Amino acid sequence: MKKILIISFILLTGIFIFVFSCSGKDDTENGNGEGGSKDPVCGNGIVEGDEVCDSDTVSCWKVGHFYPETTATCLEDCSGYDKSRCVARDPDDKCGNGVLDHGETCEMGDKKSCLELDDNFTGGYANCNRTCTGWDPSTCERGGTSTCAQIMSCAQNCSNESCIDNCISSGSSQGKERFTKLYACYSDKCPSGADKEECMIRECFDDYYNCYPNKRCGNGVIEKEHGEVCEQGDTIPCEEFGDEWRAINDAVCNSTCTAFDTYSCVHIDDLTCYEVYECVMECEGDSECKSECEKSTFVEAKNRYDTMWDCYEENCPDHNEECIKEHCKFQTDACLTQLTCPNGIIDEHAICKRGSSIDCGEVKDSDGEPMYEAGTGDAYCNTNCTEWDGMLCYKFCSCPAIKACVAKECGDYKTADASCVRDCENLGNYAGKNEHRAWREFIENCSSNGDSGFDSQHCIDRANQDFPCNVDTPHDKCPYN
User: Fold this and answer.
1) At what angle are helices 430-445 and 399-409 packed, to 10 degrees?
2) Most buried of the four, 82, 155, 173, 174, by CB within 10 Å?
3) How far is CA 430 from CA 273, 321, 404, in A?
4) Best CA proximity match to 293, nearest among 307, 284, 301, 283
């Protein structure tokens, strides 16, 4: 009997092992056992296998070059997103490409603490706005006198301690703590009548900037313990950020003093304005080639190039050099010196440093001859660094020569166009221009016997007597001697 029981037990054990092993084999082959891979199930809220998404909805900017206002929903088969509601950006719009480009403050997806934007915000984070030019505060929290700055604003309107206590009572715990420290320091160290803010900055430095955190940047002190690496106005040559940047322009300390913005830096592969033009000229009418040239640049260069190209198309479609000099010189100069001029670099296209000046007599024409009377004023380097602006300089005609100009170019003084007369005056030397202007203005403002201005011979005679315009000093550069 005992022997039979042992044999039965062995048989049952074998059957159990067989069933277990078969069961394990089936589970493995079906992908549910150890070492198997689970088939993706679209709609379970988990991105699996080759799924792109699963039942979620995201802002359009996350799934393509779109504006952020609308959303894209995961397709029913989880193979991608339905972008039909998304609004596409212009191909040249670099906002949303994940790179902080020239002119951008932030990129899509970047956030900034609302407390750094405005003392009156109590919390939250601001998103980068739709154009990447700043921060959208719509998600920031504000209310009551929660922050230290708000408590201080409330307390400034109080005339007694009870009022101040009411301001404090409505503050957040952090706001109360920071205000109490600053107010105690101020009360102790700033005498009555002292400039409150100046005194708090001087005597209660840390407490003041804990209360007004958004004012740290720009206070002239790099507070490394608060994450500052620079101060407003600080710059670093772009090339110090790596070989990928051209050795022109500077990176500027950002609005929170926590990093340097490279938006003004130019990547080594980006074409300058005139390089774009040269590239386009080599395309010989190939529109696709032209488009590629125009895309290989940065915003400022593209804007200047477009302005120059529009001028060419309107005035000089054959790109004739003489026509360009006559009608589009300013636009071409702006394109040629867009990077070197602001940085004080005098290259083959620039002749001076922006803002510099020289005596008017030192300005020479193409033949090396003086263009203006010496010793009467200064000429200033123009905005493109390509010419000396002689607006304040005097030329070479005497007062009688100016009269001769008016007679030839403008007709009788009675009917002469005012702008024509002024053009003639602008040909005058220092004495001639001033004498003619005084003579003319006296007559124009004089009246006698019902007549006025050049209709009055009496006024003309008086001007000839009191404001003589008869000293002629001929000059070979005056065309009306």
Assistant:
1) 60
2) 155
3) 40, 35, 17
4) 283
- What is the spatial distance between Cα 345 and Cα 237, in angstroms, rounded to a whole number? 14
Closest CA to 402 of 370, 435, 442: 435
Strands 250-253 and 260-261: antiparallel
SS3 381: strand
Assess if residue 194 is contained within a domain: no
Name the domain count of the chain: 4
Residues 370 and 407 in one domain: no
Distance CA(187)–CA(210), nearest Å, equals: 17
**Does residue 134 form part of some domain?**
no
Range of the domain at 277: 273-339
In tens digits, what is the pLDDT along the chain, a chain of 481 residues?
333 333 333 333 343 333 334 444 444 444 444 444 467 889 888 888 888 999 889 999 999 999 888 889 999 999 999 998 888 888 878 898 888 877 788 889 998 888 777 766 777 888 898 888 888 887 887 666 678 888 888 887 888 888 888 888 888 888 889 999 998 998 888 877 667 888 888 899 889 988 888 788 888 888 888 778 898 888 888 888 888 888 777 888 877 788 887 767 778 888 889 899 999 999 988 888 988 898 888 777 888 999 999 999 999 998 899 999 999 999 999 999 887 787 777 888 899 988 899 999 999 998 899 999 999 999 999 989 999 999 999 999 999 999 999 999 999 898 999 999 999 999 999 999 999 999 999 999 998 878 889 999 999 999 999 998 988 889 999 999 8
Task: List CB contacts of 450: < 8 A, sequence separation 6 or more.
Answer: none
Q: What is the CA radius of gyration of the chain?
A: 39
Give the separation between CA 216 and CA 352, rounded to whole angstroms: 38
How many Å apart are CA 284 and CA 279, to the nearest integer? 10
Q: Would you mind telling me the total number of residues written for the chain in this entry? A: 481
Q: Please give the structure tokens belonging to residue 325.
A: 């000099």
Cα 372 to Cα 363: distance, rounded to the nearest angstrom: 7
